[in-house]
Amino acid sequence: MYQEERLSIIMKELKDKGRLTAKEMTAALEVSRDTVRRDFNLLEDQGVAHRTHGGLILPKQMPVIAPYQRRSKQSTQAKRAIAQGAKKFLQKGGFYFFDVSTVVSQLAQISEGSMTVYSHSLDNALIFSDKEGVDFNLLGGKYYSKNRFFSNLDTLKQLDQLYFDVAFIGAAGLKSGKISYDDQADCQVKEVVINNSHTIVLLAEAEKFQQSGHYQAGNLEEIDYLITTQAPEAIKKIDGLEVIETDRKEEDHDASSD
Questions:
Q1: What is the spatial distance between Cα 52 and Cα 256, in angstroms, rounded to a whole number?
Q2: Domains of the chain, each with CATH number or no CATH
Q3: What is each CA distance from 147 to 70, 102, 150, 171, 185, in whole angstroms?
């Protein structure tokens, strides 16, 4: 079957059902999962559909960014795989920023050894409070309950006086290569951190490439490493950005359990 025929079938099914998974289209078209993913990516590039975690939806059904605690229970296996991929950037005695992010918190869970960590995340504070050898510094300020972080003008002033070996950041959305967030205060923290870090490592699940937050902190051209389960081909071609894709078996298994 030619690609044009597959694309026509996929779009017909998508319009009928509103949502498709790679698994069901692999069976329906009798092709490999990689072939279906390439077809899904092409349809997204054409602007007629949007990729999601393990599937495809119509543009009008773009998902709303959920609160932190709900997101922390989603795509957990993919997040653990991404965190494992980021662990190699941790070195003894390092000076790090850990973002408020459900996937960065997975990295915090598996971090070990002596290091200095700054974060504005309540959850990272709770995780690192039990770890020996970690000099943890919680950046204070007003508490934002939806995404469980602290920030105010003093937070930004304090960050502006620091320079991190590595900043591990997340994102609410990465659509069109733009790094965006749900809260303006959180976005301002990221802007300072990106400017005040030797190396920026962005951790993000595959669905973030179809999502957008209200506030933009920068573009992927400003990032050194992107660790994800699957990145669009256009993202992989960004100059200066090294994309690290983690074991897709983690993503596939998790997607089937959603």
A1: 13
A2: 3-57 (1.10.10.10), 67-245 (3.40.50.1360)
A3: 10, 10, 9, 12, 11
Residue 245 tokens, joined: 């894709």
Entry field: residues in the chain: 258
Segment (H or E) for 117: strand 115-119
Cα dihedral 221, 121, 73, 47 sign: negative
pLDDT in tens, 144-178: 988 899 999 999 999 999 999 999 999 999 998 99
Total-model pTM: 0.71
Assess contact for 164 and 193: CB atoms under 8 A. yes
User: Quick one: tokens of 15?
Assistant: 């319009």
Phi, then psi, of 82 in degrees rounded to 5: -65, -45
- By mean pLDDT, which of 26-30, 34-38, 67-71, 211-215 is the weakest? 67-71
